Amino acid sequence: MTSSIIALTTDFGLRDYYVAAVKGVILGIAPNATIVDVTHEIEPHNVQQAAFVLLQVWPSYPAGTIHIAVVDPGVGSERRILLGRYAGQWVIAPDNGLVTFLHRELPVEVMHVVENRKFFAPALSSTFHARDIMAPVAAHLFQGTLPHEFGRTTDRIEMLSVNSQATITQNRVEGVVLYVDHFGTLVSNIRRDQIDRVAGSAGAQVSVNGQSIGTIHSTYSDVEPGEPVALWGSCDRLEVAVHRGRAVDRFGHDAPVALEW
Amino acid sequence: MTSSIIALTTDFGLRDYYVAAVKGVILGIAPNATIVDVTHEIEPHNVQQAAFVLLQVWPSYPAGTIHIAVVDPGVGSERRILLGRYAGQWVIAPDNGLVTFLHRELPVEVMHVVENRKFFAPALSSTFHARDIMAPVAAHLFQGTLPHEFGRTTDRIEMLSVNSQATITQNRVEGVVLYVDHFGTLVSNIRRDQIDRVAGSAGAQVSVNGQSIGTIHSTYSDVEPGEPVALWGSCDRLEVAVHRGRAVDRFGHDAPVALEW
Amino acid sequence: MTSSIIALTTDFGLRDYYVAAVKGVILGIAPNATIVDVTHEIEPHNVQQAAFVLLQVWPSYPAGTIHIAVVDPGVGSERRILLGRYAGQWVIAPDNGLVTFLHRELPVEVMHVVENRKFFAPALSSTFHARDIMAPVAAHLFQGTLPHEFGRTTDRIEMLSVNSQATITQNRVEGVVLYVDHFGTLVSNIRRDQIDRVAGSAGAQVSVNGQSIGTIHSTYSDVEPGEPVALWGSCDRLEVAVHRGRAVDRFGHDAPVALEW
Predict the structure, then answer these.
(1) Strand extents, DSSP E, chain A
(2) Measured between alpha carbons, how far is A230 from A214 in angstroms, rounded to an integer?
(3) Interface of A with C in 114-133 (CB under 8 A)
(4) Among B170, C1, C120, C174, which is 20 to 30 Å from B251 by CA?
(5) Which of A14, A101, A182, A186 is the best substitution to test chain B (most B C-beta atoms within 10 A)?
């Protein structure tokens, strides 16, 4: 099956005309595209947050989906724009680390630099490449333009330095928070398969900021309202929540998370 | 006419990847569905607010529309998931009171428990049933799967204890606020048809928190900017607004609203 | 090419059921419409902000697009509803200044008053004309109803008094901020073509609140993080930003912006 989806992940917010301009350009060229807003509420300039969101949505989308990802404080500078394919889905994004997690966890199948001005808006602004470059490129790709027509291939891309992997010692894993969601839940870089390889997580004790919060549960309602609870979240990473509350208000954004057995 | 709409009402917010994951799963199975966001800004865990929004959007949607409603603090526990049909439209929701107002005001035509794992995601998370159960079930229903294939029927469902109906005495109605909208307008449980049956509302005096605000007007601009105004809102319930201002800032969320004649 | 887009610009916010009701009504009548949310985050009752957003999105949309614009504190009063066409695209809006910038900058091709109740909802509320009038009118226009069927033409419409044009003296332009975006960037009424006619902007000095911030740059990253930067924005108006920061927090909403050469 071929997807007819063009999915947008940006820090544009929803109150300005920016997202709508991108959509208008896409639909002007590719009127049959189904545009999906992944989110436009990435914290302004927070490349890591967007990179994490991309990784999390990938498994839910059909092959052929085209993602546009824009967190782009360097817009108008010499930073490049990439067109890549990971595990059957496309991503168009500035080359500033946005594909870091995709690149570490999924096979890269195609990677081009977007440079053929034939596909750009005729009057190119220096501050809105999402509208003037990424939207028309996505729409032309959707309409059947081949990836090599947009520019030469590359194998050197920018990566974030953040540690995707927790540190494992003999009876302990030490991790960091990669993402805080809008329920205030902390999503760590401790992955279930890492633990299962060395120890299994049954009986292991979780601590946040050095404070023990017990073993890993399977649902929020295993604890009383207001109590913290650790569980394997929907992306198979260790999450710390507060039942009907907000873990981030209790533990902060930068709490070290550890697991000991 | 058959609707091609799948409509989403959740407390997921718009900044995470949760809504997008749900949409990706739906479109992977039902690529021709038109997905409409009713809202994702339900206050976290506020089941009553979502239940009220469902009732309000119902009359605007065509028969056959499939609603997914998710405010689900009990996700992963033993709470059931329902698939019901009210007045020609479908709802898929956890069994925690989300259908309270629909159930009280509209005829229930079909009510099943969702339990056939054949329609669930193969790897079922314990915290994200919207993605792993409700989205694929909605998409398969859209594609033509019959309701009984999802699970057995039920006639016992959870209901909220909130009072949908105002209390009427001889020359007075006492109501409560059911909903506060983003303009700060208070929507009460006093319904026009109730009043019309006993007295008619012409000349009746409205009070909020025991303070009189005059008779019922027909538009906001019948009063000066900054002044409170009572009127029959777009859902035929008595509303209290402040012209170009916010009634909730003046009267609070829990103001008793009364009508006397 | 004919557009299949109906685009919505409102101050309804995303947490209530208002936007969803409008969409349901449209899709009930015009199931093949592609609905695009321009924004629903216009500041409540801020007609100028919506008028500016309309002007900015216009160039990105294909001919035939139908825009519904609703910032309507006078709903239910005697204010009229307009159906106009500017540069090939349609707008349906209350007659309260919402089309001010479109009307000043683009050719008006058609302008009707919406008054034929045949196209309204049968039970007309006094507070929700977006659902009961504008949505069905847009949907019937989409389905092929001719503009004159909705009501007679008019050439007298309400306009805002805001100054769209900056004031030019011999070696100086004085402007005001028309719009503040969600990055905190100030968008002024100083237009590139105005300056190019009299002087050209190379070497000209920009000041905000009387404080000099240097010449006009081409990208945000021409200055250090935290420093203010002036540039021609994506709508060819002079913008003042702070690199990786918020200009509005530094200079306020009402800062006079000047250019001197």
Answers:
(1) 5-10, 34-39, 66-70, 81-86, 89-94, 108-113, 167-169, 172-175, 177-180, 186-191, 205-208, 211-214, 216-217, 228-232, 237-242, 257-260
(2) 8
(3) 125-128, 131-132
(4) B170
(5) A182
Average pLDDT, chain B: 93
β-strand pairing of A89-94 with A81-86: antiparallel
CA B240 to chain CA centroid, nearest Å: 19
How many CB atoms are closer than 10 A to CB B169? Answer: 9
**Which of these CATH numbers, 2.60.40.1240, 2.40.30.90, 1.10.357.140, 2.30.42.10, describes A167-260?**
2.40.30.90
What b/e sequence results for C63-95 when a residue is b if at least 16 CB atoms lie within 10 Å of its CB, and e otherwise?
Answer: eebbbbbbbbbbbbeebbbbbbbbeebbbbbbb
Cα–Cα distance for residue pair B191/B50, rounded to 1 Å: 19
Are the Cβ atoms of C24 and B221 closer than 8 angstroms?
A: no
Q: How confident is the model at residue C188 (pLDDT cuts 50, 70, 90)?
A: very high
**pLDDT reading at B202 higher than 80:** no
Domain residue limits, chain A:
5-150, 167-260
More confident residue, B107 or A195: B107
CATH number at B5-150? 3.40.50.10790
CB B113: neighbour CB atoms within 10 A?
17
Cα-based angle B244, C42, C32 (whole degrees, multiple of 5): 120
Is residue A208 helix, strand or coil?
strand
φ, ψ of residue C105 to 5 degrees: the values are -110, -15
pLDDT over 90 (residue A231) = yes
Which pLDDT value is given to residue A1? 46
Test B39 with C17 for CB contact under 8 angstroms: yes
pLDDT for the residue C118? 97
Average pLDDT score over chain A? 93
Is pLDDT of C42 > 80?
A: yes
